[in-house]
Write a structure and sequence with these properties.
It is a single chain. The chain has helices at 2-17, 85-98, 119-129, 143-154, 192-207, and strands at residues 53-55, 61-63, 72-77, 106-111, 136-139, 157-159, 168-170, 173-177, 183-188. The protein is α/β, with parallel strands linked by helices. It has a single domain, classed as Glutaredoxin (3-Layer(aba) Sandwich). α2 (85-98) packs across α5. It is globular.
């Protein structure tokens, strides 16, 4: 009995010594400047995701208020992308399955070709891919607004350099956002193991006060 008690005390002491994991809070100055609008490239604190108002696959108006006080994962894509987007979508669907027990965690995908990706197109894409509408919004709308969100809020796309300042080349990045609209992680959306890491990091955020 004494041995069992001693072991329990040692285990409790060991756990008390383990540092509580903490995720970084990303600022524009910490991100590759190629992905950041030059107006905020040197910002080192207080970065937050801006307000937005766009349309989802069900023709519903979705705003930042729908995501306030929620942990969520965001990415940028387009439905006709022949390269990395199908892989990214498959992995987001996999992440969606990992969150079956956490319906309060949301997903958010912005189209970088909103002129092509109408709500009808997004709806067909969502149905084909297995998107859960109650948890995951695919958004379209004003191209300039989406561009500004990508480069001034989520910090994930490059300018395409063809002369149109609002054309963009999206990356494979998935972005983890906390309840205070802060960026807490970047992940490779083409790598399945990164989805498992996102799921683990979500648990860390859920423990934050």
């Amino acid at each position: 009995m004494l041995g069992i008690l001693s072991t329990a005390i040692v285990l409790l002491f060991f756990r008390a010594l383990q540092p509580t994991p903490v995720l970084p809070i990303y600022q524009p100055a910490m991100v590759d400047p190629v992905l950041v609008d030059e107006s905020i490239q040197y910002v080192e604190k207080y970065h937050r995701i801006d307000d937005f108002s766009l349309t989802n696959q069900n023709k519903e108006n979705i705003t930042h208020l729908d995501y306030d006080d929620h942990i969520y994962v965001a990415d940028f894509f387009f439905t006709t992308c022949p390269s990395i987007c199908p892989i990214m979508t498959e992995n987001m669907v996999y992440l969606q399955s990992l969150l079956n027990d956490l319906p309060e965690i949301k997903l958010l995908s912005f189209s970088v070709t909103p002129d092509i990706d109408t709500p009808e197109v997004l709806k067909a894409y969502a149905q084909q891919k297995g998107v859960n509408d109650s948890q995951w919004n695919l958004l379209t709308g004003d191209k300039i607004e989406i561009y500004n969100l990508a480069r001034r809020s989520y910090l994930v796309v490059q300018e395409d350099g063809n002369g149109d300042e609002h054309d963009m080349i999206h990356t494979e990045n998935f972005v983890l956002i906390d309840k205070q609209r802060r960026i807490r992680g970047y992940y490779d959306g083409t790598q399945r193991e990164d989805m498992d890491q996102i799921r683990a990091d979500i648990d860390i955020l859920r423990q934050e006060k």
